[in-house]
Automatic annotation (TrEMBL):
Gene3D superfamilies: IlvD/EDD C-terminal domain-like (3.50.30.80). Keywords: 4Fe-4S, Carbohydrate metabolism, Gluconate utilization, Iron, Iron-sulfur, Lyase, Metal-binding. [4Fe-4S] cluster binds at residues 154, 221. Residues 68-379 form the Dihydroxy-acid/6-phosphogluconate dehydratase N-terminal domain. Belongs to the IlvD/Edd family. It catalyses: 6-phospho-D-gluconate = 2-dehydro-3-deoxy-6-phospho-D-gluconate + H2O. Its cofactor is [4Fe-4S] cluster. PANTHER family: D-XYLONATE DEHYDRATASE (PTHR43661), PHOSPHOGLUCONATE DEHYDRATASE (PTHR43661:SF1). The gene is edd. This is Phosphogluconate dehydratase.
Amino acid sequence: MNENITAITNRIIERSKKQRTDYLTKIDNAKSSKVHRSALSCGNLAHGFAACGKEDKSILKQLNHSDVAIVSAYNDMLSAHQPYETYPEIIKQAVRDTGGVAQFAGGVPAMCDGVTQGQPGMDLSLMSRDVIAMSSAVALSHNMFDGTLMLGICDKIVPGLLIAAMTFGHLPTVFVPAGPMPSGLPNKEKARVRQQYAKGEVGEDKLLEAESASYHSAGTCTFFGTANSNQLVVEVMGLHLPGASFVAPNTELREELTKAAARQVTRLTQQSGNFVPVGKMINEKSIVNAIVALLATGGSTNLTMHIIAFARAAGIIINWDDFADLSDAVPLITRIYPNGFADINQFQEAGGMALLFRELIDAGLLHEDVDTICGQGLERYTQVPTLQDGKLVWIDGPTVSGDAEVIANPGVPFKADGGLKLLKGNLGRSVLKTSSLRDGQEVIQAPAVVFEDQHELDAAFQSGSLDKDFVAVVRFQGPKARGMPECHKLTPPLGVLQDKGFNVALVTDGRMSGASGKVPAAIHLVPEALDGGLIAKVQTGDMILVDGLTGELTLMVDEEELNNRPLAKFAAQHEHQGMGREMFGFMRNNLSGAELGACSLFSEDNV
């Protein structure tokens, strides 16, 4: 095992000792030696199975067979979640075949950042994660259930479901994916058309044609953004069946994996004799494995907040120092857009998760002494699912990459580190994704141009006033100011300016999309402007250093002058109205800083 990863893991264990002990005590107190519904009164139980069929009622009355909760993020607007429409009946029959019952416990909201990018609704995106966690808690609060199947894929949905799973850590939990859409217009070509549109070279008709050719069917978007990063992280933590993450929807193999996931959760319940509560299964080593895999693949920066949030729900305390130090110890071994030109289907064809597991294990980068839904250790996850005579079996996965331009050997990586840098300086703390940067773009020192809205930057770009070297400072985008919307709308204009030869960078207390990375972006800045962060004192013309090599983030203004400058006032309270945003004031006001997960559900001392 890599010594640096071991040392980082040990410090996380030590740091988390009190919170983790309290958490384990909490879930021990919540478990039951019998089926959980045995604690219900006759009236409670009658309500709980009133709508069930005769066979399921008979099983639930006996109080000796498991009742499995289905919690689903299905809706048919999200392409990734549309396949979930048929899953409940498939799952119910699979669980019934084991002698148990599955009930649809609750649906959770699922919004698509692709639809809301640059729109008012994006201000609700990050907060929707906490809503999803709370919605899942409502679904599980009836105490009817002995295990849980979580159906979700995309950006805030899986993290929200994970927070809920850890909160109900006394229950065994299996996550059930649905798979990516077929490859469409290559991501590089889509990005090129977006930049053409930003420059006025093509109209909306061509842009819509390109976008529609890229996002074109049911399934997850194929770039390596937050959705696919979620799937990778969940499988590495052992919450998916081996190889389940990236099997295409609406295929026989996908359906058999769904049935197998349903059967598997029944093998983990108290009644099975092989009790595996998810809160004990997931520990500090599982979380470190998740971060290692994220870094080795150049995954989404959104997970630098989400992993912190769901780890904290399990009493495990991590921070950006852990991410940065793990990044120094982990080589980048995949090239998936935006880190390269391949999409997630090409990653799957090159060897996929089975090969990734094998490479990381052989390099001593993953803790193998962890529990998964398939038992102890990670060896099962080097196998791939397949159908033989219509039956689901697992066979040994590939031992070498099918495409060395997509998956490399850790001994000869694409980059010596994981491509994530913690920036520190008088401006605060921030994360910078370096894995997608072009050579020579790691260090930018230039005058600031200050914006208080991403749309202001686009207007300045259209006017031609940004044809120069500069650092765009986009502030009042943090959790408490606006709910921390993604600022992905900034990517095309800044990319165009970069292609023109200008040295440009971004500093913001907001987020960028999981598909971003070409432009140096110091994101998730803490403290945010609304909390009195120094970003609120930056003025246009101030020199700023963004150094992705040394990790420095500095406003190069005399300290005495800064002390005499007033903080800029947040002048966009009107942005708290419309598209439902007025309903979320209580949550926005209670969001923690980005390094604490930008979460409203628990304080630093409360898990």
